[in-house]
Amino acid sequence: MQVPAPFEYERATSVDHAVSLLEKLGPEARIIAGGHSLLPMMKLRLATPEHLIDINDLADLAYIREEGSEVRIGALARHRDVLESEVLADWFPIFAEAERMIADPVVRNRGTLGGSLCQADPSEDLSAVCTTLNASCVIRGSAGERVVTMEEFHRGPYETAVADGEMLIEVRIPVQAFGSSAYEKVERRAGDWAVVSAGAAVWMDGDAIADARVGLAAVGANTTGIPAISEALRGKAPSEELYAQAGAIAAESCSPVTDLRGSVEYKRHLAAELTKRALRRSVARIIEES
Fold it and tell me: In angstroms, rounded to a whole number, what is the distance separating the alpha carbons of residues 282 and 288?
């Protein structure tokens, strides 16, 4: 039977209380909300925190709202909240598409955006989505808040910029008119980790692409943004040739490994094909809405 190592349990009543507990209890303390990633690791003794700090009472972190030129999502927003959000559906349809492919309703009812990002799994869907959308992460500690990009937030597999005594409290995503997004994923079975996934976001200026971003998951140590694709597409008219060029850049820029999910060659092929599909559908959505 899989049983976690012994640990102490604390329940935070506010963000400041959670931060103070993290500082008091030290590096062997971990935050828990949904727990769908942490608890299985604890049962396998892959993670052995001495203290768990439960933040499920922090309702002030469970929001999704438009504020100025950004959409802001609290770290405690559940997957179901993200899936059903009208604000996100209006600005970023990529979120709902990714959420429908994450695990099952039980997990989506309890798992959180913050937990997904802080797990820093290279195959994680919402990390790829946030990378695609150029999101920033707000980290709180006793000294105040700091804001980092997704590239800065994920430092390696299962490693983030959140230091001891700090916690992720919010994700901020810039909004821009005349844009849309899409998510493509190949998985071995429904709700599984990606073999490869690709997110795309495109913004148009008339008949030309004003800007575009692509984020990949499961093809390297972190979810991967590809600036070369943005540079190749910017200012160009959408076309199948342009999508193929972007796909080729994606295949060249990623660094997959051969494992039970597929070979390096297969994953590079998927990176190219899924990039093309996501870009094509993003542009089609903009045209439909114009």
Answer: 10
Nearest-CA neighbor of 35 among 14, 56, 51? 56
pLDDT value of residue 1: 58
Which residues have CB under 8 Å from 241's CB, separation 6+? none
State phi, psi for 199 to the nearest 5 degrees.
-115, 145
Cα dist. 183→4, 161, 270 in Å? 35, 26, 13
Three-state DSSP at 93 gives: coil
pLDDT tens string 231-261: 999 999 999 999 999 999 999 999 999 999 9
Encoding tokens for residue 53? 């700090």
CA of residue 119 relative to chain centroid, distance: 10
Instruction: Tell me the angle at which helices 240-253 and 264-289 cross, rounded to the nearest 10 degrees.
Output: 140
Per the CB < 8 A criterion, the answer to whether 195 and 270 are in contact is yes
Q: What is the 3-state secondary structure (H, E, C) of 129-179?
A: HHHHCCCEEEEEECCEEEEEEHHHHEEECCEECCCCCCEEEEEEEECCCCE
Whole-prediction pTM value?
0.94
Q: What is the pLDDT of residues 82-129, one digit of tens each?
A: 999 999 999 999 999 999 998 888 889 999 999 999 999 999 999 999
Among 94, 58, 65, smallest CA distance to 212 is for: 94
Per-residue tokens: 200: 């795309």
Distance CA 165, CA 125 (A): 26
3-state secondary structure of 13: coil
